[in-house]
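hey so i finally got around to running the thing on that chain from the lab meeting. sorry it took forever, my laptop kept dying and i had to restart like 3 times. anyway pasting the input first so we r on the same page abt which one it is
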Amino acid sequence: MILSRTATTFAPPVMEARRWLEGVDFPTERPLINVSQAAPVDPPHPDLRAALAEAALNSDAAHLYGPVLGDPALRAELAARSTRIYGAPIDPAQVAITSGCNQAFAAAIAALCAEGDEVIVPTPWYFNHKMWLDMSGVRSVALKCGADMLPDPALAAALITERTRAIALVSPNNPTGQEYPSSLLRAFFDLAQERGIRLIVDETYRDFHASAEPPHTLFSQSGWDETLVHLYSFSKSYRLTGHRVGALIAASALLSEIEKFLDTVAICPGQLGQHAALWGMQNLDQWLAGERDEILARRAAISAHMPRLENRGWRLLGLGGYFAYLEHPFAMTSDALAPELVREAGILCLPGTMFHPHDDPQGGRELRIAFANLDGDGIAQLFDRLDAVALPPR
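ok and heres what got predicted. didnt touch it at all, straight out
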């Protein structure tokens, strides 16, 4: 039987996890703690919402088709901001706006890969990247991370074949939270440049990086645009998840190929979302700095609470961005443990099996906690409940 493209991959993990809530009651004194999805639940800044409303009411263009590669003013603003962040010149012609960062990845793969090609993806992987590669007929080549949750360029080099078209990295990482050191990203860039393949770097969570220094120097490398494909999202930074606004920075020649994909799939990014992203970049720097400080405070709270779980056999494998990645101490595998945590602890999180190849037992020992929507008290309650879980140990 010939499979459809969608039948080549698995069901959306977050939607699968939500089904675990069916038939479960959460008493008032112990409401559900939902740490399954890395998305802000609060609405955008009030002034940004007002700017959106004003555009909806008074800008005719906000309701019409726009350029396939995005609004020129937004492309120029992102190019200028990226130039300031990375200390290297980026031209607006090297920027495309997409309907979310997932679409940016999909567009890049469509422009770079043919049926049967390969992309090297570190594991634990971001499941939507894996899903799109499956549906594109592109083989995901698993690059297993070390105990520090960082991929090794030397191991990646050994995986490159004549069908390899790219290496795809996410930093700060989803699902582990690890921030890849600048030197590591440079090593992967050098490898990709030397072997004539692309390096895709997804920096969706860049604005919540713990360091005040530039995340990397890749845009300063000679001929960067012939190797690097940079992905970014406005969704987390400006609370615009429902508006689907992402971006891609690469060689203008590659963007010409990507334009074909975008025109066919969406014609253009949503105009109101682009308006919001532009207004946010122009007006909300101080507010965004406060958002970063709050995320870093929650990250610190995770670290402060971990010792009591470590005493019971838990391990913190990665922390950063929106995520804490944990190794649990129980005999059952994480795909059985995660639904059990819903019923017994009122916690909805994702099992590590969703981030690994199905034949890799490592995923059965891991859980992803998306902590960005928990304040300090919520994080304390999360650890109280995890500490109270009584199951047979491994």
